[in-house]
Amino acid sequence: MVYVYDNTSITANDPIRFRLHLRAPLAVTATAACAGQASGKMLMNNPNSSSVVVEVKDNANNVVATTEPFTGEKLIENLVAGAYIVNFSYTNGDAATLATEIGTGSIFAAPSFIASSESVSIEDAIIEFQATAPGATEFEWNFGDGTTVSNDLNPVHAYMQPGVYTVTFTARNGGCESVQTMNITVSAASTGIANVSNSVFTLYPNPARNIVNVLLNIDRNESQVKVSIIDAAGRLVRTENVNSVRAGSIIELNISDLASGVYQIALEGENFREVSRLTVSK
Question: How far lies 1's CA from each of 5, 47, 87, 93, in Å?
């Protein structure tokens, strides 16, 4: 119970010098702040019929939050970790004070990530990412082109249009999160290896159901060609190597295990690298 001393009704002839008002306790629930972030919270619960105004002061006696008169619950957010004094003032003149603390919640090191390249031409625009986020339990990538991937530290993504894309990597642990970004520049200019007209190979049939053929239009023999299949979320589905290919060679890909959707087929040889879209329709 909260005991509140009130002398407002005492008169000179009043034999009762002290009055105790018994009031239901005000509950304050503190939620820890994330490391280095003003993300702590205080949930106030006033079960009394009288409205109350709350003033929150930090350890340096600075007022960091105030409320309008309320009954029921009130949430105060954006608090840093530390000790606080919470002053309650009721509309009938009663008052109370309590001390509480916002602890430090989940701690994890700042995440970081690297890309296989930060500036590429469109024919080389398959980017491999590698991230580290010690202590984090959830991860999310936004590749800046409308594609996102969750819970994968090392995704592969193919950009299909020239432009400057901001890649955002978010690491989370409970309610705490940390964000890192990087710009990827995809140029329309050719490196001289291949161009974006898909002259290097042709896919047929497209759409395909179980089998798709890759007709090579290369102008020289290749000792090995790497074929990669990437889904619409930018995840590498499968990679296989084909040896001793030349112009007119046909590579048959079994795609019976792929669900319906749009995929990217990437071919990479010693002298070229190119990407084309494939629609799988079951």
Answer: 13, 12, 16, 18
Residue whose token pair is 């629930």: 29
Mean pLDDT of 212-221: 86
Which residue reads 């705490």 in tokens? 176
The structure tokens listed for 9 are: 């009704």
β-pair partners for 140:
150, 170
The encoded tokens of residue 95 equal 């008052």
Q: What is the largest CA-CA distance in the chain?
A: 113
pLDDT band at 194 (very low <50, low <70, confident <90, very high): very low
pTM here? 0.50
Is pLDDT at 114 greater than 70 in this prediction?
yes
CA 187, CA 115: separation in Å to the nearest integer? 16
Torsion, Cα of 129, 133, 134, 138 (10° steps): -110
For 140, the token pair is 């999310």
- pLDDT tens digits along 118-137: 998 876 777 889 999 888 88
What's 63-90 look like in SS3?
A: EEEECCCECEEEEEEEECCEEEEEEEEE
